[in-house]
Batch of 2 targets.
Target 1
Amino acid sequence: MPRLAYVNGRYCPHGAAAVHIEDRGYQFADGVYEVVPVAKGAVVDEDPHLDRLERSLDEQRIDMPMSRAALKLVSRELMRRNCLSNGFLYMQVTRGVAPRDHKFPKAAKPALVMTSRQLKAPTAQTLADGVGVITVPNIRWKRCDIKSVSLLPNVLGKQKAVEAGAYEAWMIDPEGYITEGTSTNAWIVTQDNELVTRNASSAILNGITRVRLLKLAEVQGIVFKERPFTVDEARGAREAFITSSTNFVMPVTRIDGEPVANGHPGLLTCELREVYESFVQDAKVSA
Ligand code: PLP
């Protein structure tokens, strides 16, 4: 069965799906997106993701392309047509199509594209090895809380990581604090056993996985602190990991080529991965 995409009201074969050359997302990166995980055919944390989509749109002064209920219906239909069981939905909304001009067009209608992708879970070996991160300067703009499709610094950072044989790049602000990864949030467990992730602000994207994991940690009675942490603190940490909708909780075992602690995934990291996995495997998450 061919993979399908939803483009402005139509389901079309993924390979033939296209948007207009004067779509403002294409010309100005004038749009936002969401990546919503799907596990066992259920959409995980759907409302928090749609809340964030609405917020990003609001901050960019773009209207919702359709009601939330309609977006959910399109998601379900796309999942059904693509037989999506485990993976993610990608939603992108731009200000629409208009003759190229920086100012907002008067008549453009928001454009909506939705795709889905099936993903395999990471292998036991990947989870046992953990992944490496490198550190790069944070060269992004000052509104990283908006999930903008303008991702060039993230793309460049990720490519640098890949070329260094690493999985992710952690971006460092001018004060020496880690902001986040190019498509993940950054976490450490300090030598004092404190679970730390940077506080939500315009310096980071407030990950839905991040927020969920904090809630799950609270339920488990795991103490955490939301605060900035430096590269040096991360290098000297007991444990480190990243979170995102496609990685869930992924142990970080190397920073800039040096092992984190003994170079193996930490105990708390593994516990948190299990806790998060049981949360997503609960098919009732938001079926
Ligand atoms: N930070 C950035 C810059 C991201 O792009 C992402 C996800 O794409 C995240 C963090 C993690 O967010 P979430 O947990 O909602 O996937």
Target 2
Amino acid sequence: MSDERWLVLVTRRLPQPAMDRIGERCEVTLYEGEDAMPRDRLLAEVAGKAGAVTLLTDRVDDEFLDAAGPQLVIVANVAVGFDNIDLPALTRRGVMASNTPEVLTETTADTTWALLMAAARRIPEGDRFLRTGKPWIWGPMMMLGQDIHGRTLGIVGFGRIGHALARRAKCFGMRIIYYDVYRPSPELEQELGVEFRELDDLLQEADFVSMHTNLTEETRHLVNAERLRKMKPTAVLVNTSRGPVIDEAALAEALREGQIFSAGLDVFEKEPEVHPGLLELENVVIIPHLGSATVDTRTAMGLLAADNLIAALEGARPPTLLNPETWEQGS
Ligand code: DGY
């Protein structure tokens, strides 16, 4: 281990253990704002750095790489999703990129489950109602929701978080179907008790649809007006992946028209904006991208990003490297 201290940029304060781990080996330039680091500051501050610890709110593209300069070794993103990073651009320049998979899987599945239950059983709506102070009395037809047990869950994008959701759903006595372009092994399908369906068949059959795809050009607006029309009028749609995988205007319309029962959303198409049509509706539960937002998980994500950063700067392979080509070129 060398005692060199590298210049790095950290674009937002991370949980203290992660800041400490980075600070042990690096001279840190830290943006202390509560908002995303303004673009002009980001470009100015990344200049001359050997490493950058970025967030999903920072766009890492050719402009960023030009501003950084050729000494940049790694961009360590604190998220499993990396649609904010132009990975081919980094790879072309031999700059490593890493993300933070696995450490957030269970927490994000918990958040998904919470949204699913809240949207099915109208929990936030009931809470809002009581706070109005309006008189009420128990009634046999009051605020009826949808059962979860015994119903069919359709998981779109069957990676780690999809698997973790399937495990939860199994405990609730649900039938589980999934769609993905990659199929897991028959053994894993059997262990999780899941069956494959084509996407349009899944949308027609599922009582609950939960989105877990990466955001790519292929998955942008994967759920659009036409696909929403295929869903059951009693269906609940949940999204804890990335906002643009659902056409938000079409979803607001479908919810208003009662084409589907309700939705639970952690992410938004033009984040941090929420489509105004959604804000007016009772049958949508919205939370501000909290999928991985627990003390332990955000700490684990920060520590993994720190490990990726320091490994790359020391000349070792980062544990969760996204573009192994850069490692193969360099080694
Ligand atoms: C991710 O990691 O991609 C989430 O969206 C933030 O935890």
